[in-house]
Amino acid sequence: MYAVDVRNTDDFSPAELREIREMLEEVFGPRYDEQSWEHCLGGMHFLLRREGRLVAHGSLVPRRFVQGGRELNGVYGESMATVKDLQGSGLGTVVVALASAHVRLHYEIAAFGASKYHFYERLGWRRWQGPTFVLTEDGTRPASPERGSVMALIPADSAVDIGADLATSWRAGDIW
User: Fold this and answer.
1) 174 is a domain residue
2) Is 94 left (phi over 0), alpha (psi -120 to 50) or beta?
3) pLDDT tens-digit series, residues 80-139
4) How many CB atoms lie within 10 A of CB 42?
């Protein structure tokens, strides 16, 4: 039997946060560093447990997005993962579906950098069609030379244009 757990970062105990981080480090290996961990904090977490064991995780973190000079109400997807022995069993789909429902109810846009397009596209996410930019102290600059490296979920009632420019705030590590 599985249990769903949806909470804000601030609602987890230090032990629970350690458990989440250890699971993510196990799944992603050495590339999951301190920056990766910090990027997934500060928003909503979507967890699946099987008989008490944490088996899947994803988070949506508030992020600044601007399109056509307009600030968007948006979040960024972070640390979507399923433990290795259960990958391919549909648990990642459940986590992404939970996160997607949250986006559709509360935001104009959700975005994240991805390479497994097909997995997300079948859940309603689309490849960003326009150019992407990063907002820095020195102004706006191109963020991603290839289109399609950013996936977005745009609710039906959102005015966001998937073919237009999209800018997000600078951060250490991966921008998108």
Assistant:
1) no
2) alpha
3) 999 999 999 999 999 999 999 999 999 999 999 887 888 999 999 999 999 999 999 999
4) 15
